[in-house]
Fold each of these.
Amino acid sequence: MTTLGELFDVAVARLQEVAQAPLASVAADERAALAGELEGLLAQVQKGLGPRAYTPVPTTEERALTRAEQNLDGCLDRARASLDTASRYLSPRAGEGGPAGERIAAAARAVGAVRDAIGSHLGPDRVPLTPYAYLLRHQKAFDYLAYRYSEVARAAGQVAHRLSQGAGHPGGADAFDEARTTLNHASVYARAAARDADHDVAGFPTALPVEPVQAAATDATSAVITRLAEDSERLSRAAYGALHDRADQRLSGSDLQQISRWNAMSRLLAGRTLTHVAAEMPDGAARDGFTGAAAVLREPSKAWRDAAAAWAHIADTVDPREHPRLPPPGYAQVRQGKAVRMPSPDPHPAAVISRTSAVRLGQLLFGAQ
């Protein structure tokens, strides 16, 4: 699962690679192309500021830019204008940016993916689809985004500084230097205003669809562990959708019974896996931690087992209008005593995910087969 912190790290890393690359011998048309790529990156940053990006709860009035976002927004406008000036001084027709241009474009895609990751937790009407969306109701979360955008701005300023070296045209070099100075100011002002940022927002993941991913005997151990984490995210989203009645398919009593049974089995298998790992470890705090965690998992396993037993006494009463009307049985069927089967709904995706998680834990404990 990709997180916001990882996306920002990718954007900054790609820009730093360009800033450290030798660009003194780059031709004027290629340098103009790089200025255009850098301007496009800054445009992506601006799209991520304030109400132009996302609002967790639909309101008649969009929220105003925070102080950190205001500091960034104004400086980014001036830096983009400077880059446009540099591009026009260097070449009337920009060429290809080459490998450096590809890295700047990759950084721009990563910045755009930040908005996509956050937007994946919101519906078309911007109503939350997962519990993560509620994190964006807090000032400290906005400050974190502004803080990381300021890091991108600073790295872009380093690229502008490198482009000013050997620019050839004095007006172009001055424009690049002005862009660098403006971006440095943007970084300093935004970071100062966002000093209370909640850096735990870095772990904000991209929302996964509820549809399950089946386990396969060919899955590597590392893939099994990754899939287990993704199963947990999918179950969290399914539970949130069921709680707020936003899921396409409602949970039935039999679904809840199956989910409870498989969750009880998953906790049991997870505890046994930890015990197995602890047995191979030397004595110490780590081994005690594994053993203690295995013991703690017995309680939720028992709780889920009790829940499954309780759901076994629940009978679903489903509105017949939700099923297609069946034709009456024919005369021959009646004479032969054949029963006409009522249609049965497919299991809820959460029930399938719960079962698949238990299978993955079984793969860890007993082997792929």
Amino acid sequence: MSVRPGTPIWLAPDYRVDELLGLYSADSPFSGYFPETKRNYATDLCLYFNYLWLRGKLWTQADATDLKDYQYWRQEAPGNPRRVGGAKWDRELAALAGLYKWALRPSNAFVPVNPVLTRQVMGYRGEMVAVSVLKSGDAKHSNVHWLTPRAFRRWVDVGLRGHTREGLPEPQWVGRLENRNVAYAHLLYSSGMRRLEGASLLTFEVPTLKLEGGYYYVGRLAAAVTRSKKARTYYVSAGVVGEIESYAESSRAAVIRKAQAVGRYDALSEMRMVTEVTGGPRRIVHWCDRDGVLGETELSRATDLDRMTLYTEGPRGPEPLWLWLNEQGLPFLPHSWEGVFRAANKRCKKVLASKGQSPLRLVPGVVEAPYLTPHGCRHSFALYMLVILHHLMDERFGLTPEERRDFRLLYGDPWRMVQDLLGHAARETTVEHYLAPVADLQLRSLLATAPSSEAGEAVAGPLDSIFTRLAREAEGIQDIDDKMSVAV
């Protein structure tokens, strides 16, 4: 098997290459994982291999007792200063289960026994599934913090725009590609995209503002960059589209010009110059590589690695079609957005968190320093859309019970609408993980006191009080105190 880009090379502590692990990482299912999953699983497996090495064993010699001892070390051992929770352990267990299942294939048979013992349980659809006996019973897979719209605005202003606690621009603030970071965060929060989905957009995949206006614009996500491997429609607010266009015309154009000036694109070994993008149900990207070889790629099947190689001929030379660029004018890698969000979280904590015990911490749901991750934007989007859709159906439209029933028969209830917006195949995923804080709350009673307003961005302001109540009554939702609201 050939070693492709992104394939791990496994070295033992004595610097010997593990050939069996090399075969595993080049074979399915590991070779088909997303790059992020490969990195996560490789890290998890290396920790386990190092643990066995200290016990004088190789991974091919491990048994069920070794794995049980390893779980104790990872989760319970007093001598371990970095014990992990149930969700993290379950991910490590999934990585190990995949490895040993591969090693036990009849065509492989590289290990005598499978240390990952399993038992049969009934799935939620009634089917029997195998579950590891060491699977954590207290895993919290929705370990995500939801942000109310008000808390999100605060996070963006302080964390990404460099505002002070009083909501004023910091005089000494120097934001590196600030408009890029703000536009990307707003894109995730406005559309509910996953990190990779939003990070791998090409310039021509973003809707353009139209003279006739409109609050929401429609785009299409390629199947290759979605988790389900199915293309889906996304909706993004006009304000976010405007921010993306502003970024493209300012700092993005500036880093491209600098890269062209120093010949950075001329030095790239992998570049596919796009000559045409044909329309129709299957959009095809036609390109020519460095060696003059002509080719074509169906847009929906173009992976993030494919997309990074696509360029177009601009007025001053080659320009990347990858939307988000770093300071060198090259594609900003999807996993690098985690660093942007971490930096924003640190700044929020530094600027907003009071020293000592804050009285705000005594109020459920109210925080001084909001915390957010790229995937947290997606969860927050789900909560926002659920409340807005309930508000529009039950308040603004003024439907009678009979009309509401007919409307839901035709279009589905707000829970189903949010499920479709997120691209979930199962309703349980939407309700149990993304909307877990409000799954057992009666939104109708909360919305009964909501003021009427027009659809669109204006709804968020009048509904701030509703989100505040949700934050106080449901675990995991972050809101900010009225006194901390940023002056506009």
